[in-house]
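Have a think about this chain, tokens included, and walk me through the fold.
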Amino acid sequence: MRSFLTALQFLTRIHVVRQDNLTIEDFGRSVRCFPLVGLVLGVLSFLVGLCFVNFVGPSYLTAAVLVLLPIVLTGGIHCDGFMDAADGLFSGRERARMLEIMKDSRVGSFGAVAFGCSLLLDFALVLDLGQAPTILLIAVFLAPVLGRAAMVLAVACFPYARPEGLGKMFHDLAGRGAALSAIIVAAAVAAPWGAGALLVLVCALGGAWLFDRWAAGKLGGLTGDVYGATEKLTETLVLAAFWVLLHVPQAQMLLGGWHF
């Protein structure tokens, strides 16, 4: 329970209990609980989405709320990493300079443009998925779970690019078992929604893995900013994968018969 509460406090604005004496080991052990934090966020997004779908209907307002809600619940921690990673990775500089740019707390033009494009794409995908409200609700439920499972894979399976840093303590203490645990939790959460959800899981985690390999090749490893970018990118991939399933007639049979 301590590890879960540590992960919840670190990744979100939801602070159930006060934890003042956390150690490096506490943070390291909390990595395994990242997908469970995603499950909490997914349930909240599902419930808010259910209310808006039933009382407001699929609309621009519903789409905006569902896109902004995860940012409010997390304090935008992953968005910050996404922007910093974009500034560094797209700078076209050498490795050392990329890492220096990513460490700068200021947001550059690449980060601002990339984040704006990401928000616009998320909004469009959520708005389109509103044509099938049940699929929309499943998508916003699964996105944070798979996003944080992808983070665990990035933490556990790729080297850390810097000799020190906040992300390094996660990498050093997570262990390979954390990756297997994340996959099991993600599969267990996705499986009840049918074959389509499992296919989305494979596509989203596979896409995140390819992004991490590309980033690690440029940086000589990953950083905390790339972990955040991985989470943000994976959530978008989940929405995009459900959009494809919804709009490809041959794939619609995989979506199941859920109705809310």
In short: Residues 13 and 252 are 37 Å apart (CA to CA). DSSP finds twelve helices and no strands in the chain.
